[in-house]
Amino acid sequence: MKAWVEKGGYLNHTGRRWLSCLHVDNVRRIVVIRQCAFGDMMATRPFLVELRRFFPGAHITLSTISRYQYALPTDLVDAIHVLDTEERSVSGKWSQLKALGEPDVLFDLADTARSRLLTLLTPARVKLGFPYRRSFNRLLFDIGILRSDFHYEAEVLLDFLKIMGHKPQYPLEFAMPRHCRESACRRIVYFPFAAVAEKSLSPDSWCEVIEQAAQRLPQFEHVLLEGHKAEEGGAFLAEVVARHAHVSVQPRLDLEALGHFMAESSVLVSGDTGVRNLALATHTPTLGIFFMTVPFRYWPRYEDCHEAVFHRDGQVPGRMDIIAGLEGLLARLYPPKEIEER
To answer: Is 36 helix (H, G, I), strand (E, B) or coil?
Structure first.
């Protein structure tokens, strides 16, 4: 098999020889290291879908850490390996690090201190990774892929398979409930929370945005979605809800119900959050609000249904910036005549 790379990656002698002799039927055991929270785990799903397509007979193990157990893609892998971050004994840590045995292929999609140690101690036939520091390529990997902050993370992960000549499906397949624009509810969903509070607007700002949207877009329901954490409640919107019959708060949903709820909605308005990544995974239109995170890493461009609001100087977008972005997106996706007919 040809190594489909010119100057965009790293190959040592082992990696080049492995690619030249690669027969997918001979790959029996694969380990994928991905130590990440909800949003990035959502972005991993297309890679796992395509990995199964490319290596249909392989046993796939996903390795993560105990801190990140929410939204694990158990439906796409054969086994889960967990490094317990609370383990204190040396023998216990060593047992966990050596539990993966000797896979044929190892993908490090994490680039953390733990993932690098696990990569180093796991005697796989070939190891692939995309470290930010290229010095780790020579130390740890046989095949290295360039990592970018300017392309959607889920697509960057697929470069590991493109180097083998694989043709991923587009739009990406997440194996999640899928949004259908023609039958979607006339419902705009707002998720005003983030894992780091500084990455989201203030509650007062969200109240202003939702009230303004409710006044300007009365043909839609406006729903604030509560999160799964205790502090991610919608009580702060009570006055706005009292003033508008078409504004409401959706109590927190479990992950399966949330996927269907999102797929049935018209659009999600949110900052850089795991919930927005779930919306991307269901192909639900999104309006992303960015001022800390680089937007391009979480902004798919292979679909016309996603828009990002941000200022070049990094200032926090104002209420009217967000409303203008929302109205523009809705006008493009749901023309007024089409809305009236639904």
So the answer is: coil
The dihedral region occupied by 226, where left means phi > 0, alpha psi between -120 and 50, and beta the remainder, is: beta
Q: ω before 335 within 30° of 0 (cis)?
A: no
Cα–Cα distance for residue pair 223/214, rounded to 1 Å: 10
- Domain membership of residue 199 (yes or no) is yes
Asked whether residue 1 is assigned to any structural domain, the reply reads: no
Residue type, 104: D
Check whether residue 227 and residue 304 sit in a common domain: yes
Provide mean pLDDT across the span 60-65: 97
Structure tokens at 266: 């018209």
Q: pLDDT tens across 322-340, in order? A: 999 999 999 999 887 655 5
- Model's pTM, two decimal places? 0.94
Residues 122 and 185 in one domain: no
Q: What φ, ψ does residue 289 adopt, rounded to 5°? A: -110, 120
CA atoms within a 13 Å half-sphere pointing along the CA-CB vector of 168? 24
Domain housing 222: 181-341
Same domain, 157 and 192: no
**pLDDT, tens only, 1-20:** 688 888 888 999 999 999 99
Closest CA to 261 of 243, 242, 289, 284: 284
Q: Is residue 36 part of a domain?
A: yes
